[in-house]
Write a structure and sequence with these properties.
- This protein has helices at about 5-10, 15-45, 70-75, 110-115, 120-130, 140-145, 185-190, 210-220, 235-245, 250-275, 280-285, 290-325, 325-330, 340-360, 360-370, 370-375; strands at about 55-60, 65-70, 80-90, 105, 120, 135-140, 150-155, 165-175, 180-185, 195-200, 200-205, 230-235.
- Helix 10 crosses helix 12 and helix 10 runs parallel beside helix 15 (about 360-370).
- It contains 16 helices and twelve strands.
- The protein folds into two domains: about 5-45 and about 245-375, no CATH class; about 60-225, no CATH class.
- The strands form two sheets. Strands 1, 3, 4, 5, 6, 7, 8, 9, 11 and 12 form a ten-stranded mixed β-sheet that branches. The chain has a two-stranded antiparallel ribbon with strand order 2-10.
- The chain is α+β, with helices and mostly antiparallel strands.
C-alpha cells in the first residue's frame, strides 16, 4: 500500500466522523465567505469612469438638513462643473413598508447627462421630460414589482408630507444601480408648496483633474453661511451611508474570528480522537522503521486533507450559489450584486490550509514524543 492510500484509508475508516467534520468546516467557511463578500459589497461600492466624475453637495451638518435651491446658480457658474442637478431623497412607501427601493426627485432633463453609463430609450426619456407627473424607473425595480411603462404608481410620503402620484414613462438599464426611481423635482416642489429647498446637488465634473479643486471651491463659496456645504465624491457619499450602520468592519471581523476559532476547535478535536484511537498503530509504524517526523507527516496530511476538503465545499459552494441566484430579489433590494471574488476564495482556502496544519499541532506533538512502548501500552 502506498503512503497516499494509507492516509486515505485512515480518513475513511470512520465515515460518519469524516462527513460531520468536513461539513462543519464547510459550513463555517461558507459563512466566512458570505460575510467577507457582504463586507466587500458594503465598503467597496462599484464604480465606473463616469461615477468617478460625480460629486454630491450636501449640508455640512447632516443629510437630514436641506440646502437652499438658490445655491444651484452659483455652483453652475464655478469652473469645472459640467452638469448640476437638484437631487432630493424621497424615501416613500410603495404599497407596503417592506417594498423599499431608492426614489429621487431630480431635474429630469439632466438625468441622462448625469448618468451616462445608464441606457435610456430616447422616446421614453422625451415622454418623461414632457410629463410633469412622470417618472423613470430602473429595470430591476420594474421586474421586482411587475411594473409596466404607462402604469400609474403612488408613493406614500414618510420623510416629506406629500404622496406623489406618477405615471411610469420609461425604463433605464445599465449603470451601477438599476433600482432607482426618478421623478421631477418641479412636481415635488409643487406638492410641497414650493419651499425653495433641496436635499442635495449632484454634479458631474468636466474631468477627474478638476475634482479636487472643485470640491474646495464649492465648500469655500458657502462657508460662513446659514447652510454650509460638504462636497464629496459619489463613492465617499455612499460610504457615508454604510457608516450609519456602525463599525461594520469590526463587527464582521469579530464574527469571522469566532468562526475560524470554532473551526480550529472542531478539527483539533477530530484529530485528537482519531489519533488516540490509532495510538497502537502509530507505535507499530515506529517499530517498523518510521521515524517520528514521518509519522507526524501522516497526521498533518490527514488533517490538512479534511480542512481543505471542507474549504472546497464551503468556499466554492458559496461561489456557485451566488452565481445562480438573484441576490437583489433574495435580499429585497439590500444588495444589488454579490460577487464572490477570487481574492475572497483564496483567503478562505488559505484559512482552511492553515487550519488543517495548526489544528493537529498538539496531537502531532504528543505522537512525536511518544515512545514505542508507551504507544503499545495504550488501551483501546
Amino acid at each position: 500500500m502506498t503512503i497516499t492510500g494509507f492516509i486515505i484509508r485512515n480518513v475513511l475508516r470512520n465515515k460518519r466522523r469524516l462527513v460531520l467534520t468536513v461539513m462543519s468546516v464547510a459550513l463555517s467557511l461558507f459563512l466566512y465567505t458570505v460575510l467577507q463578500t457582504a463586507l466587500r459589497e458594503l465598503t467597496q461600492p462599484a464604480s465606473t469612469e463616469e461615477s468617478a466624475l460625480r460629486l454630491v453637495v450636501r449640508h455640512r451638518v447632516s443629510l437630514a438638513n436641506v440646502l437652499p435651491v438658490k445655491y444651484q446658480a452659483r455652483i453652475e457658474n464655478l469652473p469645472g462643473v459640467d452638469v448640476c442637478s437638484q437631487f432630493t431623497w424621497f424615501g416613500g412607501i410603495y404599497q407596503e413598508e417592506k417594498n423599499f427601493f431608492p426614489q429621487f426627485a431630480c431635474e429630469g432633463d439632466k438625468i441622462a447627462r448625469l448618468f451616462k453609463e445608464a441606457t435610456f430609450d430616447p422616446k421614453e426619456m422625451a415622454d418623461f421630460i414632457e410629463d410633469r407627473a412622470g417618472c423613470i424607473v430602473g429595470v430591476k425595480t420594474m421586474e421586482r414589482f411587475g411594473l409596466k411603462v404607462g402604469q400609474k404608481i403612488t408613493l406614500q410620503g414618510v420623510i416629506w408630507d406629500c404622496d406623489p402620484e406618477m405615471t411610469i414613462r420609461g425604463v433605464y438599464r445599465g449603470g451601477i444601480d438599476e433600482t432607482n426611481l426618478f421623478f421631477h423635482h418641479d412636481y415635488f416642489d409643487e406638492l410641497m408648496g414650493n419651499p425653495g429647498v433641496v436635499g442635495t446637488f449632484w454634479i458631474k465634473a468636466t474631468s477627474a483633474a478638476a475634482i479636487p479643486g472643485l470640491i474646495e471651491r464649492i465648500d469655500r463659496t458657502f462657508r460662513n453661511t446659514d447652510a454650509e456645504t460638504k462636497t464629496e465624491t459619489e463613492r465617499a457619499f455612499q460610504l457615508g451611508f454604510v457608516s450609519m450602520f456602525g463599525n461594520i468592519k469590526m463587527l464582521i471581523g469579530s464574527i469571522c474570528t469566532v468562526i475560524v476559532f470554532t473551526m480550529m476547535l472542531v478539527t483539533a478535536s477530530t484529530m485528537s480522537m482519531a489519533i488516540r484511537e490509532r495510538m497502537r498503530e502509530l507505535a507499530i509504524l515506529k517499530a517498523l522503521g518510521f521515524d517520528g517526523l514521518r509519522v507526524v507527516g501522516l497526521i498533518v496530511a490527514e488533517s490538512f486533507g479534511l480542512a481543505v476538503a471542507g474549504g472546497l465545499v464551503g468556499c466554492f459552494g458559496a461561489w456557485f450559489l451566488f452565481r445562480h441566484i438573484d441576490i437583489y430579489k433574495v435580499t429585497q433590494g439590500f444588495f444589488l450584486k454579490f460577487d464572490v471574488t477570487p481574492h475572497i476564495l483564496a483567503g478562505g482556502m488559505l484559512i482552511a490550509a492553515v487550519l488543517g496544519a495548526v489544528s493537529c499541532a498538539i496531537p502531532a506533538r504528543t505522537t512525536l514524543r511518544m515512545t514505542i512502548i508507551e504507544g503499545l501500552k495504550e488501551l483501546d
